[in-house]
Amino acid sequence: KLLLVRVRQNAHWYLPGGKIEDDESSEATLHRELHEELGITLTPGSLRYLYSVTGPAYGQAGEVELICFAAAFRDAPRPCSEISAVDWLPVDAFDQFAPAVRILCESFLGATGRSVE
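Request: output the structure for the sequence above.
Response:
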């Protein structure tokens, strides 16, 4: 499962995170954004780079690059700031994902978009 978020009434889910500021590393951005959006603090030393994927931006023209990490964290994720919902979704729930998340699940996780129940 993936920890995903929605903003306002958007129909699709995407990865939490945000734009990297000029003076930030991708890791620093992740720490900041996850605290702002989900109220969680990453466990020191647990951050691990997984994969990067480029795909269509959700709800706007152009492309987005997702730099994906795994990490342990403290506290339960909750919607904060602009986030309206947060949940753990199965990696094969393609019809619920923003386009770049779909590409991530296909290319990195090998998901097919067909649930095997």
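The two ends are 15 Å apart (CA to CA).
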